[in-house]
Amino acid sequence: MSKYRPEGQKEIAIELPQGAKMISILDYFGIPPEEPILIVKNGRTATTEDALSEGDLIIVLPLLEGG
Asked: Which InterPro entries does the protein's record reference (predicted)?
């Protein structure tokens, strides 16, 4: 996911409008909807339609393939 975040930053704080959903974060960083990812919100798996609240900790991880 490093190709979507500002260079050299691992943690980023952003402000979104009240009532924003998880998809807003993907849009903010230009992550395409078809990108295979796992979204974690406050330690639990989330979907793009989950609502965001102030102070949420969001982690976006790439899904790995292999064998």
From this structure: Beta-grasp_dom_sf, Mopterin_synth/thiamin_S_b
